[in-house]
Design brief:
The chain is mostly helical and 577 residues long. It has 26 helices and no strands.
Length: 577
């Protein structure tokens, strides 16, 4: 469709169209919910109603262009402080929005600067719900049907969502009632998205954005717009488990502060007032926990038009407006200022903050460069983290190896000490055994001498025995003589024989006594000789074993020998057997 007006039509046609637009504007003024649905002309090109009016009339185009140009001119004059004969009225704004929405596709794509100016000037409350759907391309989206399907499914995050619902806009009339309509709607939409995007699931802060949408539209429309915000406007990356985009926002905001507000940035750093402490809610809740809702709605208007840029502009405008106060505060006072005082300051004039936001120096090219710098820095940090993780893993393995070696060293030290103790014990046992061996050898020599003496005694006794036997035979013959009375009588007559006989009798008695003593002694000596022979054999066996085994033979300590050496010999015999 051409932007030039159709000169073939009559002026009455244009007047009639303008009258229809004015009538539509009056209808909007009387019914704030009159534009919750897009007229047939504003539907996407796939709609059957759109096909019927695919070529709008040139008179309507002329009217829209004239109204939007007038609004643009008046808005620029207001910002410059210059006066105009005709001020911008609410009727002008409604008329312009009615004309734009009536033919949204052509106006948005062929006259984007006019639509952009209208959005910057503010979307009227009556058409805000419809405008948000059109700006986000969520109108007639199949996401609304998807929402109905997801409503029937359970979510693993239901308990956490239910716990956070009461903390979302607790003072707002729509959400303050426990288990009221507002809280139930909020729960349904947040739960549905946690099922739609299971990787993100539910994240604190997202319920505030859903709450902003539910203040303007029903559940299924709020779900469709919220899903578009998450998927197509980059909000999803703020809520991923790594929150990489949130850190990127902090990095960009800090870079903007260093360039435009270096004193304030230095003060924040000196106080340890990190960006994550005060700017997290700005991006995660779209300023809904910091600023009044009137300002938040304007931020949403501009966010749907321009994306993340407006969040940085609003943030820098907030810092610029409070710079003089912040540089004089400590950390506690700054936290209180961000959490409470900013709300009161900007509740008086919402449009002043929006106007200040567009005075902030913001270069998309520079933001792209900062994003690349951050990505490169994050990749380096990731590589360093991976290297650190690998080194920690290797360090853990080495530490485990060191612990294992320490245990082995402790075990070996224990065994070494035990071996040294055993070696000392064996040395002591060997010394005792050598001492006992010397005693045994001395005892053996003594026993050998005694044995030799015994053998000599035995030989002497055997000789005596032979003599005794000879004398016994002589005595027997003498006895025979004595037994014969006549012989004895004869001997008695001779004094010499009588004396001889008495002597012989005494000798016989002595010899018999000695014989019995010798016999007893011989028997004892034989027993003693046998015992000595056994002891000698055991001693020689001990000596041979001691010579063969050396010091190893001392594993068992023998008992101390008795004075006779017999207990030690018996002990040694038992040990070696």
């Amino acid at each position: 469709m051409d932007d030039e007006p159709n000169t073939d039509g009559s002026g009455d046609c244009d007047v009639e169209l303008l009258a229809k637009l004015e009538a539509q504007n009056r209808l909007l003024e009387t019914d704030s919910k009159g534009l919750t649905r897009v007229p047939a002309a504003a539907r996407p090109s796939g709609s059957s109603s759109r096909k019927e009016d695919s070529k709008p009339k040139s008179g309507l185009n002329l009217a829209i262009e004239q109204v939007v140009k007038r609004l643009t001119s008046l808005s620029g004059s207001r910002k410059r402080g210059t006066s105009q004969d005709t001020p911008i009225t609410e009727e002008d704004i409604y008329l312009a929005w009615g004309a734009v929405i009536a033919n949204w596709e052509d106006n948005f794509h062929k006259r984007p600067k006019y639509v952009k100016q209208l959005v910057r000037d503010g979307i009227p409350d009556a058409v805000r719900a419809l405008a948000w759907q059109l700006l986000s391309n969520a109108f007639d989206s199949p996401l609304k049907d998807t929402y109905v399907e997801l409503m029937e499914l359970p979510s693993p995050s239901e308990k956490q969502i239910q716990r956070d619902i009461a903390r979302t806009f607790p003072q707002h009339t729509f959400f303050k009632d426990q288990n009221g309509v507002g809280q139930e709607s909020l729960f349904h939409v947040v739960k549905a998205y946690s099922l739609y995007d299971r990787e993100v699931g539910y994240c604190q802060g997202s319920s505030f954005i859903v709450g902003i949408l539910l203040m303007q539209m029903p559940e299924e429309e709020a779900f469709a717009v919220f899903t578009k915000l998450m998927q197509e406007y980059g909000m999803r990356r703020l809520f991923t488990p790594t929150m990489s985009s949130l850190n990127l926002c902090f990095y960009v905001l800090e870079a903007l502060m260093q360039e435009s507000l270096p004193d304030l940035y230095t003060h924040f750093q000196s106080q340890g007032f990190f960006t994550s402490m005060w700017a997290s809610s700005w991006f995660l809740t779209m300023y809904s926990t910091t600023l009044p809702l009137s300002v938040v709605f304007r931020i949403m208007d501009l966010f749907l038009l321009e994306g993340m840029e407006i969040l940085f502009r609003i943030g820098m405008a907030l810092l610029e407006s409070s710079k003089m106060q912040l540089v004089q505060m400590d950390m506690e006072a700054m936290l209180r200022h961000f959490q409470k005082e900013m709300f009161v300051i900007h509740d008086k004039d919402p449009e002043a903050l929006v106007s200040a936001a567009y005075l902030v120096k913001y270069s998309p090219r520079k933001i792209k460069r900062l994003e690349k710098e951050y990505e490169a820095m994050r990749e380096r940090a990731s590589e360093e983290h991976e290297e650190n993780r690998r080194l920690r893993s290797e360090n853990k393995l080495l530490q485990d190896r060191v612990n294992h070696l320490e245990l082995e060293s402790t075990s070996l030290a224990g065994r070494l000490i035990e071996g040294q103790v055993n070696l000392a014990q064996e040395a002591e046992d060997l010394f005792v055994m050598r001492r006992e061996l010397v005693a045994l050898r001395k005892h053996d020599a003594e026993q050998a001498e005694k044995l030799q003496e015994a053998e000599l005694r035995i030989a002497e006794l055997e000789h005596i025995n032979e003599v005794v036997e000879a004398m016994r035979s002589d005595a027997s013959s003498s006895g025979d003589v004595l037994e014969n009375g006549s012989t004895v009588g004869e001997l008695d007559d001779s004094p010499l024989r009588s004396n001889e006989l008495a002597r012989l009798r005494a000798e016989v008695k002595v010899l018999r006594r000695k014989e019995s003593e010798a016999t007893s002694t011989i028997e004892k000596l034989q027993v003693e000789v046998e015992r000595f022979k056994q002891q000698l054999a055991q001693t020689r066996l001990q000596q041979s074993l001691s010579s063969a085994d050396g010091s190893g033979s001392g594993s068992t300590s023998p008992q101390a020998a008795s004075p006779s050496g017999q207990p030690a010999a018996k002990h040694i015999q038992k040990e070696w057997v």
